[in-house]
Amino acid sequence: MTQTPVLITTTGPDKPGVSSVLFAALTRHSVALLDVEQVVIRGQLVLGVLVGVDSDPEALQEAVEQAMASVAMHVEVRIGSAIGADPFAPDRQGSSHVLVVLGRPFTARAFTDVARQLATLGANIDTIRSIADYPVTGLEIYVSVAADTPEADADLRSTLVAIASQVGLDIAVERAGLARRAKRLVVFDVDSTLIQGEVIEMLGAYAGVEPQVREITEAAMRGELNFGESLERRVALLEGLPESVLAEVAGSLELTPGARTTVRTLKRLGFRCGVVSGGFTAIIDHLVEELGLDFAAANELEIVDGKLTGRVVGEIVDRAGKATALHRFASEYGIPLAQCVAVGDGANDIDMLAAAGMGVAFNAKPALREVADTALSHPYLDAVLFVLGVTRAEVEAADAADGLELLRP
Q1: Tens of pLDDT along 157-166?
Q2: pLDDT number for residue 408
Q3: Which among 81, 92, 368 is positioned nearest to 227, based on CA atoms?
Q4: Alpha helical stretches, state H, 333-391
Q5: Can you tell me whether residue 251 is helix, strand or coil?
Q6: Are strands 44-53 and 32-41 parallel, antiparallel or unpaired?
Q7: pTM for this entry
Q8: Which among 52, 69, 83, 80 has a CA at the least distance from the CA of 10?
């Protein structure tokens, strides 16, 4: 016997018992359940149910309307051809891409511009869900491109990069599928990424040479100066600085907002977390202990008779060295590079971000933004969690379960 499709859409204030009342009515008519979807937005419920009925769909409609009236919910029932597209046809084979869109503020105008660009590319929005309301507003959007080819993928990414800069949003683009949820290792740069500011400039301030150090740092971050050479020049300016200053600087570091939350949440999820830095082990070791990091790589300052000599000993962790360190740590933990995430802000992070399965440019210079998989322009490190598909609600629920105080302004 051919079944008649019936689409039921229930809306109204979310409250206990709505689903049970609806499905009790459906049960009495022996329907076949074909599809169900439910969302709750600020306490307002939208519940859609597609069923197949063997006979008398009008009787089913009447029963459903009476049932929903009993719980003061609005219901719309469409039968057969009134539903539109063939309801018995196979659903989409799955979205091709996932977009994470972040903004502060996140305006309707900005989202409209993004949606228009997607439509121009022939990309259909399949699903939208909220993933964050603090410290940025974030949406996770599943889309399907009209022709899922490498060319279409490149067009999608380049178009969204362009529109993101125009409307003031951050947009991360990833292929949908299991690989997106398979990340297992995250490595952070330190200066201006995991922490606020540049450690070597802090040391320069103690030595009275901060302006000279900053000038060399900025040139290196812009990619205008080889990092190894820039490091040697800056460290040379620190000659004679007492070793005790290293501990003072380490104790005065300010973490980037969201850094502690990010590491704590990733560790809960079983990620290996660490740092690869062009900075110094004497400083990095403090962060490793404070945050409970799994690994670290940085440069070693030469100290003689309690004072810095102005030289670095051992192999320099420069642009190439950062990528080498990522390879080493991934190998030690048996994690493929495709399942690694690298987060950084400067030109010396280019090779490391390129080697990782996902490279995140965090408030970065143009040279790094151009090669990164996604760029974050808001000064909150926990935005990395949202890009990985972790929601603010999940973070706060886990913190609450551990007895941590919810901190919001």
Answers
A1: 999 999 998 9
A2: 72
A3: 368
A4: 350-355, 366-369, 383-387
A5: helix
A6: antiparallel
A7: 0.86
A8: 69
- C-alpha distance from residue 346 to each of 17, 188, 211, 291, 323 (Å): 54, 12, 19, 23, 13
Among 91, 126, 191, 318, the active-site one is 191
Q: Which of 14, 113, 155, 189 is catalytic?
A: 189
* Residues of the chain predicted below pLDDT 50: none
Beta bridge partners of 137: 103
Q: What is the pLDDT of residue 370?
A: 87
CA dihedral 165, 170, 176, 179 (to 10 degrees): 120
Are the CB atoms for 142 and 126 separated by under 8 Å? yes
Per the DSSP assignment, residues forming a β-bridge with 124 are 144
- The DSSP call for residue 5 is E
Active-site residue flag, 191:
yes
- 189 is an active site residue: yes
For helices 244-252 and 199-207, angle between their N-to-C axes, nearest 10 degrees:
130
Distance CA(46)–CA(127), nearest Å, equals 14
The angle that helices 210-221 and 199-207 make with each other, rounded to 10 degrees, is 160
CA distance 231 to 360: 24
Distances (CA, A) of 312 to 200, 278, 304, 309, 320: 13, 11, 12, 8, 17
For residue 300, the cross-strand partners are 313
Rounded Cα distance between 291 and 32, Å, is 52
Q: What is the rounded distance in angstroms from the CA atom of residue 221 to the CA atom of residue 364? A: 9
For residue 188, which of 382, 394, 395, 405 has the smallest C-alpha distance? 382
Sorted by sequence, the CB contacts under 8 Å of residue 202 that are 6+ apart come out as 249, 252
- Coil, helix or strand at residue 116: helix
